[in-house]
Amino acid sequence: MMRFERWPAIAVLGGIVSCLLSVGVAGQSTSAATDRTLAAPASFAGIADPAKRSAAYFTELGKVLTNPRCTNCHPATDRPRQGDSARLHQPPVFRGVDGFGLDSMRCTNCHRDSNFDPGHVPGHAGWHLAPAEMAWEGKTVSEICVQIKDPKRNGGRSLEDLIEHIGKDTLVGWAWAPGAGRTPAPGTQAQAGALVEAWVKSGAACP
Ligand code: HEC
Ligand code: HEC
Question: What string of pLDDT tens digits covers the 207 residues of the chain?
Fold first, then answer.
């Protein structure tokens, strides 16, 4: 079976550290705590100007892109963040050359193929950090929009590829089934995919 012998001690330690940290961040609101829904593309039909309507789809999608379920893995530094308060990952782990961590502390030492809820450890077979050029943490929705369209900063993807990636990719999909102790991203993955599609087909304008 799975080998998690080292888990209890790490989980307890992590729990203590996160309690201490959460004292410092209590009072901050996160997007996860506010709006839990995504509007359907049809609800923007009243915006006559196509560019304004396109930008409005992206603004709505921005609720997902700026959610901690995404930004914790698309951080501004070499360190992932954790939880709804987006605290720095404990224990300290770093991107490493391939996004899977340093040789001494690989993501896969702890993150397995699926969520491991007794230790609140999120999991997916491809669990690793998004490359530095895909950092979203701390950026505005407008900045993310420009960046996500740029093949030099989106992994060489076309706009069509983005519809598929956000709407269907299973690592992205983890954000809507993140396991105990974390609030899922707003709406559903299918609704997010529908917004990306509406945005691309209306000219992919940025807010
Ligand atoms: C476990 C970490 C992890 C999580 C969680 C995660 N991503 Fe990513 N993301 C990655 C990695 C790694 C890549 C680079 C993979 C590649 O280029 O094939 C990436 C690339 C992307 C890309 C393509 C490049 C870009 O920035 O335009 C998009 C779009 C994306 N992620 C969307 C999301 C969305 C939306 C969420 C939340 C709903 C999310 N991701 C959550 C790790 C993550
Ligand atoms: C020593 C074990 C360990 C290692 C190694 C590790 N993690 Fe984690 N990680 C955890 C635990 C435990 C949690 C859950 C903490 C919590 O939220 O209570 C976690 C949570 C996360 C989260 C938070 C997800 C969310 O939205 O809340 C991200 C992102 C993450 N890890 C990324 C990584 C990446 C990327 C690597 C490799 C560079 C890595 N981790 C290596 C133990 C580890």
Answer: 444 444 444 444 444 444 333 333 333 344 444 679 999 999 999 999 999 999 999 999 999 999 999 999 999 999 999 999 999 999 999 999 999 999 999 999 999 999 998 889 999 999 999 999 999 999 999 999 999 999 999 999 999 999 999 999 999 999 999 999 999 999 999 999 999 999 999 999 999
Tell me, in angstroms, the distance from the centre of ligand 1 to residue 9's CA: 30
Residues contacting 157, CB < 8 A, separation 6+: 151, 165
Q: How far is the CA of 74 from the centre of ligand 1 (A)?
A: 7
- The neighbour count for residue 90, using CB atoms within 10 Å, is 17
Report d(CA 207, CA 57) in Å as an integer: 9
Is any atom of ligand 2 closer than 6 Å to the C-beta of 182? Answer: yes
Angstrom distance (rounded) from CA 25 to CA 135? 22
122 in Cβ contact with 115 (< 8 Å): yes
Instruction: Compute, in angstroms, the gap from residue 66 CA to the centroid of ligand 2.
Output: 18
What is the spatial distance between Cα 138 and Cα 68, in angstroms, rounded to a whole number?
11
Residues 77, 55: Cα–Cα separation, whole Å: 28
Atom of ligand 1 nearest to the CA of 136: 26
Residue 172 in contact with ligand 1 by CB distance below 6 A: yes
At residue 82's C-alpha, the angle toward residues 162 and 26, to 5°, is: 120
Angstrom distance (rounded) from CA 165 to CA 187: 16
